[in-house]
Amino acid sequence: MLDATALTTAADEHSDARGALRRWQEDGADVLTTAATLTEVLRGHPRDAHIHRLLASLTIRVVDEHLGRAAGERIGRRAMRGNVTLDALVAELASSLPRPVVVLTSDVDDITALVDDDVMVLDIAA
Known about the structure:
Shape: globular
CATH topology: Rossmann fold
């Protein structure tokens, strides 16, 4: 599962993250992001091309009413403050997937606070 920073980092063909994603996909992993995450990374500029190339190899999950409600309730249960809406969508989707699940993010603290305990959170910068 990729959040916005992980998505932009992995879109760089020369990044370690992109290499790791390729290896995971070769091993049969399904790499996902949410459609809402696209609002953080796409700006309608030619520089978006590298992100579009990566998106072609990912599964993009739509944010529907069920996911939206569940993510909001997750924020409430965890008593989170601040702007964590997109993090909560990523966390809710990751937590609903069959295990094992890994979330790549630069926002380790918020994502870790939001995901289920058995979801692994990795710092994309590490």
